[in-house]
Amino acid sequence: MPVNRNALIRYRTIDKCLQNRRRKWTIENLIDACNDALYEYEGIEKGVSLRTIRMDLNAMRSDKLGYNAPILVVDRKYYTYEDPEYSISKIPLSHQDLDVLQDVSFLLQQFKGFSHFNDLDELLQRLEDKIYTEREQETPVIDFEKNELLTGIHWLDPLHKAIIKKRPLKVTYQSFSARQPADLVVYPYLLKEFRNRWFLLCMHRKGKELLTLALDRIAAVAGLPDEPYLIHKGFDASSYFNDIIGVTRNVADRPTLITFMANTRHAPYIRTKPLHPSQQVIATANGWTTFTIEVIPNFELERELLGFGEGLRVLAPKSMVRIIKQRIRKMQELYTTPASDS
User: Fold this and answer.
1) For residue 316, how many other CB atoms are within 10 A of its CB?
2) Which of 190, 203, 207, 302 has its CA 20 to 30 A from that of 283?
3) What is the DSSP pairing of strand 71-74 with strand 78-81?
4) What share of the chain is helix, strand, coil (3-state, %, to 5)?
5) Is the pTM of this model over 0.85?
6) pLDDT tens digits for the chain (342 residues)?
7) DSSP-H helix ranges across the chain
8) 234 in a domain, yes or no?
């Protein structure tokens, strides 16, 4: 049963009132206390109704929220707890609750690098402490993919803010092939994660071309308040990555039908985890399954196909077959040449 913030404020207010046994609480008193709390915490001036408070009391009494609050009505007028030590905040968590909280904790810990998640640090610590004190420490049963040594993650927050506020940036960037870093004036559009690395999709001021910049290759980021922000007319964040595997593409490129076959060892993996949403099974014969995907060829596609080794063969188009053959030939040369000569 979903509970909104206002309802939680009312439940906690009623709970606090009923714990105070030095005063007799009529339902009118509870309404006044809830109105005061809602105004204080949420700025809500509209008063809650008698019906709402009655429904709150019934919800607290029931097992719907797990409270099972022992609320009594004395002299048909005054509300109190039968157990003077009872409070909804003292209810022990069930094993199911703890499992859900643990999963939520693991998920929240994945969002590192964004300043608006910094406020969650203390919350996460309290959450972990609550879970730990409620049950014995156990080995995690979920291990999310993460890279604690990932560099450049600290650029996520300033880049995210620049995209939202539509602010041009001067980015000092050095690709793996460049000898020296270079300053680029760019218009940021999108942050993209792929294989545990983060990338910035932006337009370069000079060539009006779209760039994909790896955050771990960024050395500095600076705002340009006097520079107008420009939009790339050919960029659509909702569809830009639809036709590719990974992050590399040219706006002018068009999808190509790639045909490949996989042996009995690898075909089940490719079936259950498609390389691309366009993937289809064409045929199965002689221990090999033939697949097709319709994507724009790029480096990430080549690496994906080569990753299956001898268990996968590209059949078409000829241009992709030629590229894969060249890569395989270079690999063979690497392993046939003594390591010292290499």
Assistant:
1) 13
2) 302
3) antiparallel
4) 40, 20, 40
5) no
6) 345 778 888 998 999 999 998 899 999 999 999 999 898 888 888 889 999 999 999 999 988 777 889 999 999 999 999 998 898 877 665 566 656 666 666 666 555 555 555 555 545 555 555 555 555 545 555 555 666 667 888 898 899 999 999 999 999 999 888 889 999 999 999 999 888 889 999 999 887 788 999 999 999 999 999 999 999 888 888 889 999 999 988 767 899 999 999 999 999 999 999 999 999 999 999 999 999 999 999 999 999 999 999 999 999 999 999 999 999 999 999 998 887 765
7) 5-19, 27-42, 50-61, 95-108, 120-134, 156-165, 267-272, 299-306, 318-336
8) no
Number of domains into which the chain is organized: 4
Q: What is the largest CA-CA distance in the chain?
A: 97
* Positive/negative CA dihedral, 59, 60, 66, 71: negative
Question: CATH number of the domain that 202 lies in?
Answer: 2.30.30
Q: Is residue 41 part of a domain?
A: yes
CATH label of the domain that carries residue 34: 1.10.10
Domain that holds residue 321: 256-336
